[in-house]
Amino acid sequence: MAVAMAAALERFRTSTRIEHLLEPLRSDGDAPGLYFEDGGHTVSYAELERHVLRVAAKLRLVEKGLADRSLQPLRVALLGYGDSPTYIQLLFAVPLCEYSLVLLNARWSVNEIARALQTAHVAVLVYEGGLLAPEVADELLQGGKVQPVCIPMQYFASLDGSQLLGSEMTSPTRNIQHAREYNQSEFGVFFTSGTSSEAKGAILTHENMLVQALAKCEVLGYNASTRYLHLAPLYHVGGMNSFLAVVGARGVHIVPSARSRSESDQIRALIHRYDVNTLVVVPAIMFRMLGGKQSQDDNHGRDSVISTSMHTLLFGGNALDHSLLAATCDAFPHARVYEAFGMTEAASSLTFTRGHKFGEEYLPGGFAPRHVELGIMDLETTASEPLSDLHVFPYRLGEIWTRGPQMFYGYCNQSTKREKDEWFATGDMGFFTADGALVLAGRKKDMIKSGGENVFAAEVEEVLMRDQEMILECAVVGVKDARLGEAVCAVLVVASGRDAERPTLEMLQEHCTRHGLSRFKVPRYIHFCASLPRNPNGKVLKRTLIEQLQLCQIARTNGGRSTHVS
User: Fold this and answer.
1) For residue range 445-497, what is the model confidence (pLDDT) as tens digits?
2) Domain 447-564 falls in which CATH fold?
3) Which side of the chain, N or C, has fewer Cβ within a 10 Å radius?
């Protein structure tokens, strides 16, 4: 596998970005490449390439009709669910035309869409009709400095040979002389999750996306036998990068309808129907698929098995608690389960865990692919660079920094761009073990300063979820406290129908102490709610939680007693 990775990297360095994207399409002939649940279409890679070239030609015609062609690079935004052949064709056609992709979250409000269009200086918006009515498209652009041309996606779907006679594009030829320049150019703009502030548009290059896709192939073993079910949304960098990785490996894509993606029974049915063997998911999706924490009961065995064909499962987005990991291994007994730590600015994953299988001892900590450089910045240091000799400084807790060819070019609307070898502070805390595994300790902004001690929310959350069947999910935040500065508060969501089993504060504190938490880390307050506030990517909005808690004045009024606000 390492030899194949090295060969792939060498091909990348000596080929243009467009050639690299289209190579798998043109090399596999009529082999099935994509199955679309919506409409029942089956598309070979060869068919896909023909459609991509026609869509690209139509895009060129759109460019010629633009009143303002001064925006460079020309950015084309896609607003859709990612479940149609036309959407997939556009993912290839836009870079083929040497334009930049801007993938918009289909769950955003009209205002959020308008803000993203302005932030990224989008020239063309291609949208699915059901998501954006023409009159709404016109309204959201009123008053903006940038006025993109809005085109329904159906415009590109209704193509036949006579429409584009004489105007079809051809596959690009190799241009070694300019390969490095092409690969450093812009692939697209991806928006960060925006858990602590407004989402930012990170500019990613072709090199960023391709080295990360190649890393997934090496670590996870993607190949031509991979059968990948699209559950990770393509507008998220992790979903898009996984898509490119499977394309590069010449694997098969199963594209569910947007409706099926949100229905656990439909996901399970698709896994069986298409003999799916690879999934990339966030914990919340898997939780729904498993129907809750069923495997925590004494109900292990064949009744809990969903599929024996699954061999690769990658979790990302949020930390995976031990009970969900155990339930996943029960449901997919032949699968190797990986956890990835990554971020939008790094074009996806920075580390991967070793891969856990049913019956094996769980080993925490992830390892970086060979092209990713990591370091730890001590919280007390005044140094300008992190500690990167990890064998000399194991178990030193600090902020995780990174650099390498995976790192983004810069943010939209920022006058200065990043240098290629510049270190980037991830905002995540962690430490390295003696064998070089990175163990995460939560977000730096989530660190609670209580009585002069540092409390990492992720550590407390992990303990709270151990052996607590009635707790569906939890979040730990700091609330204002006159004596301690901040006090640890646990926000809990209790399983439906189990309100009577809610733990008291004393029970929760005893549980934390029994599982080895230091006294200053044990929650002093608890708060119950129906659900945790989340952004469209599924990440918990702790800032919103803190605001809600401040309104409730928990720290000042309930004297350590539990409180509940619906």
Assistant:
1) 878 888 878 888 888 988 888 877 778 888 999 888 878 888 999 999 888 77
2) GMP Synthetase; Chain A, domain 3 (3.30.300)
3) C
The three state secondary structure string of 269-304 is HHHHHCCCCEEEECHHHHHHHCCCCHHHCCCCCHHH
- The answer as to CATH 3.30.70.260 being correct for domain 363-444 is no
pLDDT at residue 13 tops 70: no
* Number of neighbours of residue 243 by Cβ within 10 angstroms: 21
Q: Tokens at residue 340, please?
A: 């990835």
306 versus 499: which is more confidently predicted? 306
* 203 within 8 A of 212, measured Cβ to Cβ: no
- Which segment, 13-27, 76-90, 159-173, is predicted with the most confidence on average? 76-90
Q: What are the backbone angles phi and psi of residue 53, rounded to the nearest 5°? A: -65, -35
Q: What is the pLDDT of residue 114?
A: 87
List, in sequence order, every residue forming a beta bridge with 551; answer none if it has no partner.
none
Separation of alpha carbons 439 and 560, rounded Å: 32
CA distance readout (Å), 17 to 6, 67, 258 = 17, 28, 30
CA dihedral (292, 299, 311, 433) positive or negative: positive
Q: Residues spanned by CATH 3.30.300.30 within the chain?
A: 447-564
**Lowest-confidence segment of 135-144, 262-271, 335-344 by average pLDDT:** 135-144
Angle between helices 206-220 and 2-13 (to 10 degrees): 170
Q: Which amino acid is at 89?
A: Q
Contact criterion met (CB below 8 Å) for 483 and 465 = no
CATH 2.30.38.10 placement within the chain: 363-444
Rounded to 5 degrees, φ, ψ at 89 are -60, -40
Residue closest to 242 by CA, chosen among 251, 94, 367? 251
CA distances from 44 to 28, 50, 153, 249 (A): 8, 10, 21, 15
Contact partners, residue 64, CB within 8 Å, separation at least 6: none
Which tokens in the block code for residue 93?
């056609």
Give the pLDDT mean for 239-251: 91
Using CB atoms within 10 Å of the CB of residue 535, give its burial: 0 to 12 exposed, 13 to 18 middle, 19+ buried.
middle
CA dist 95 and 185 (Å) reads: 10
pLDDT of 176 > 60? The answer is no
